Amino acid sequence: MTEPILSLRGVTRDFGPFRAVDDVTLDIARGSITGLIGPNGAGKTTLFNVLTGALAPSSGRVSLGGRDVTGMASDRLFAAGLGRTFQIPRPFARMSVLENVMLAPSEQIGERLGGPFFQARRMRDQEAAIRRRALEVLEFVTLAPLADQAAGRISGGQMKLLELARVLMGEPDLILLDEPAAGVNPTLTRLLISKIEELNRQGKTFLIIEHDMDFVMQHCTPVIALAEGRVVFCGTPEEAQKDPLLLDAYLGAAALD
Ligand code: ADP
Ligand code: MG
């Protein structure tokens, strides 16, 4: 077996006396589209926040590609190849779709070029390169026709595609998606799935939180279920569908959500 792209060992996150994520130990296989399910409040988003450096774990270790990244900040994780989208997309509403995509990596590049060796010419070249890459990525997610539109004026589904575009600017190996299909019409959901599968064929690994059981059962393997902060199931979609505990307690609850 190849080394997992992401490993969690005993990851726990407390909010005061409340344990939102409880001793999670998991390996995410490189090249997989892994689904993470569980009822509302199970701790899925909190786990994502810990994995992406938005929250520090209270205890436990996280490693990415064999390297310990526990407690590493989001921007460094992004640079190390881990991208994530948000359950509620938050673009800069007044900036254009293109500008929102261009923002993703420019901070890092600006940082690298900063200090006394800063060169205006190189900065302009960099900006042109970022613009070209952003247009390419927008083309890929089919948002190129909306490049000049204010990001606050595109639909909820288009915002999910914009989020994916921003993530792709970092050329991540591992992409975490938080409820990509929520509030998205079926046509855009199908488009999003085809883009995920195309990226997966190119070698990218996905970890996807999703309530839509058809989405998870058709496109994710393995499926991991979380309940009250703990992993209660890990297996294929076929196994998940035969698991009575999962069917009753978790799939039922999630489907109603
Ligand atoms: P899920 O994404 O599975 O619906 P969350 O990770 O959002 O669940 O939440 C898990 C639990 O942790 C919930 O009970 C939630 O109220 C609690 N929680 C999440 N974030 C915070 C926070 N910042 N402060 C306190 N409690 C939180
Ligand atoms: Mg959530």
Offer a few descriptive terms.
42% helix, 257 residues, 9 helices, binds magnesium ion, 10 strands, six-stranded mixed sheet, four-stranded antiparallel sheet, globular
What does this 3D model show about the protein?
This protein has 257 residues and is an alpha/beta fold. The protein has one domain: 3-Layer(aba) Sandwich (Rossmann fold), CATH 3.40.50. The protein has nine helices and ten strands. A six-stranded mixed beta sheet has the order 6-7-8-3-9-10, with helices on both faces. It has a four-stranded antiparallel beta sheet with strand order 2-1-4-5, with helices on one face. Strand 7, helix 6 and strand 8 form a beta-alpha-beta unit. Magnesium ion binds next to helix 1.
Quick rundown:
This protein is of the alpha/beta class and 257 residues long. It has helices at residues 44-51, 74-79, 97-113, 120-140, 156-168, 186-201, 213-219, 237-242, 244-256, and strands at residues 6-15, 18-28, 33-37, 59-64, 67-68, 82-84, 174-178, 205-209, 223-227, 230-235.
